[in-house]
Amino acid sequence: MKDFRLYDIMDFVMDEDFIRWVQEKRPEDEAFWTNWLQQYPEKHLLVAEARRILESIHIEESVFSAAELDREADRLLQTIRDQPFRLNKGRVKTIPSRWLMAAVTIGVIVAAVVYKPTDMPSSPEISEEPYTYARLTSSKSLIEQVNTSDKPIIVSLADGSQVELAVNSRISYPRSFDSAGSRDVYLSGEAFFRVARNPNMPFRVFANEIVTKVLGTSFMVRSFEKDSVIQVTVKTGKVSVYSQSGATATKKKDTPEIQSGIILTPNQQLTYSKEEQKFHKLLLPRPVMIVPVSVDRSMVYEDTPLEEVFAQISKAYGINIVYDNELLKNCTVTADLRKEAFYDKLDLICRAIGATYEVIDGQVVITSNGCL
Questions:
Q1: Per-residue model confidence (pLDDT) at position 158
Q2: Range(s) of the domain holding residue 105
């Protein structure tokens, strides 16, 4: 059993499971690493640097000759040599030569995986029946609501939950949830859900290829059958999302990662590509506060410890902010952040302490060499 807690940056770069997560973005890998980083948030910076290295040497899936593999190895060596990496406390070190060669070996292995001699016959593609709305609902006794009007309509469910059904959308649901272990509804189109809390009976939205599971929260699902991408956006609370195909493929294993799915919190959005069968988690372009407006009016700081400032902003927007607390423990902030948008707040703080930030997997990661 691997203990990723003990890994350094090059252990991650050379680990086949980590490489697969970065390069292939399989739903089950996304679920595992999302949950692992939630358990060990102090590893975010290390993982971010390892991902940056792997993404810089990403190889598109194509046909390679043996000579091309040799040239690719030389290119990878130069690429990694040019990539510094940061320790947890912001110090920059060059990568030792033995790690360079090990990483190049991994890069060549990645290339070799996609290497196919030209005379090798390709395997026939296996077509799977899509998880269409019609197929999911055809054998069930359900009530259906279809919005043929020119504005959203409100649909009330038996458990007290409410659905704001968008134009040209439809939803099916049972008359009562009493006899089921979960509250299952089926969506084709777009809808905003306000789910009545019931810890003993999860609420699940089946929207073509994906399932969104919650206990009580508000969120939006957009899943028109003609669209190539499905979207789930969380307003309040927390949801987990998983693909029906991924859950089916691992049903015998029934791993905790698949059961829990990819976790989404406020101001996060998950997109699912039907063609690639891959998830991508990001923050909304304009995150909104999930606390009373009065909190924004209190965001005036005078030599306030950075930890307190980040904690208040993180709580106000429900967005995790990852940084090296030990490195920045003596930093203070003097600023008036009232009426500033979320990203403007981050820009002002980072300029004040000489830091930068980026959004990784729906979270904000702060990078700094220490206060100015």
A1: 94
A2: 4-114
What are the CB-based long-range contacts (under 8 Å, 24+) for 79-88?
80/53, 80/104, 80/107, 83/52, 83/53, 83/56, 85/9, 85/49, 85/50, 85/53, 86/45, 86/49, 86/367, 88/42, 88/45, 88/46, 88/324, 88/326, 88/327
Whether the per-residue pLDDT at 260 is higher than 90: the answer is no
Which residues lie across from 325 on neighbouring strands? none
pLDDT score, position 66: 56
Query: CA nearest 12: which of 41, 33, 34?
Result: 33
139 and 109 in one domain? Answer: no
Per residue in 321-337, pLDDT (tens digit) is: 999 888 898 999 999 99
Domain boundary (114, 144, 168) is at 114
Residue 272 lies inside a defined structural domain of this protein: yes
d(Cα 134, Cα 239) in Å, to the nearest integer?
25
| Amino acid sitting at position 292 | P
Are 305 and 254 members of one domain?
Answer: no
Give a yes or no: residue 128 inside a domain: no
Assess whether pLDDT exceeds 80 at residue 47. yes
Residues 278 and 312 in one domain: no
| DSSP code at position 274 | T
Does 120 map to a domain? no
